[in-house]
Design a protein that fits this description.
With about 180 residues, the chain is mainly alpha-helical. The chain is about 60% helix and about 10% strand.
């Protein structure tokens, strides 16, 4: 396009020319994923004998992230995998707006679902924490009850005389309290 209007436009600098050539590669990539070198040479206004200049330009475009492609020197073509977007044509705006609105509604639905999951998780966490606190309180009460029972059973009992010997109601190593009484007799 610039070549056709070169006389009406100011001359381009080196970087401007390179940028236009990169964008031309992107435009060609949008039409075809395998671009013959001959097409590239013609569209980029590079001499057919200067394939090295073409390959250098393509390599610059790859390193700049403008395209993701492979040079197929055996078949003399550029194999394009991915490329940056160009300006949108007016007739495609409605389609793009529709796609973006659909994407936004999907994002809103996902966000709503995530918020519901967060609320549910927080509710479950609160219930779990209440249950844990209740169990800890019950455990504490049970320990206190057991300590009271243990300490009350450990208090000395009143001595009972049985044949001049003290009688114990607790079991010893050798058996029951009754056996201890008989042994002491």
């Amino acid at each position: 396009m610039h070549v056709a209007q070169a006389t009406a436009l100011p001359p381009l600098t080196g970087p401007q020319t390179t940028k236009l050539k990169h964008l031309t590669i992107v435009t060609l990539a949008a039409k075809c994923r395998s671009i013959p070198y001959s097409t590239l040479l013609k569209e980029l206004d590079i001499a057919t004998s200067n394939v090295r200049e073409l390959e250098d330009l393509i390599i610059e475009a790859i390193y700049a992230g403008i395209i993701q492609a492979k040079l197929d020197q055996r078949n003399a073509q550029l194999e394009v995998e991915c490329f940056i977007g160009r300006d949108i044509k007016r007739e495609k705006l409605d389609s793009m707006i529709e796609k973006l609105e659909h994407w936004c509604s999907n994002c809103s639905a996902v966000l709503e679902a995530v918020e519901e999951e967060i609320a549910r998780a927080n509710t479950l966490k609160a219930v779990s924490m209440r249950d844990q606190e209740k169990m800890e309180q019950e455990s504490k009460q049970l320990r206190q009850t057991l300590l009271k029972m243990t300490s009350s059973s450990m208090e000395p009992e009143e001595d009972q005389q049985f044949g001049g010997q003290k009688q114990s109601t607790k079991k010893g190593i050798r058996g029951s309290a009754l056996a201890q009484k008989v042994i002491k007799k």
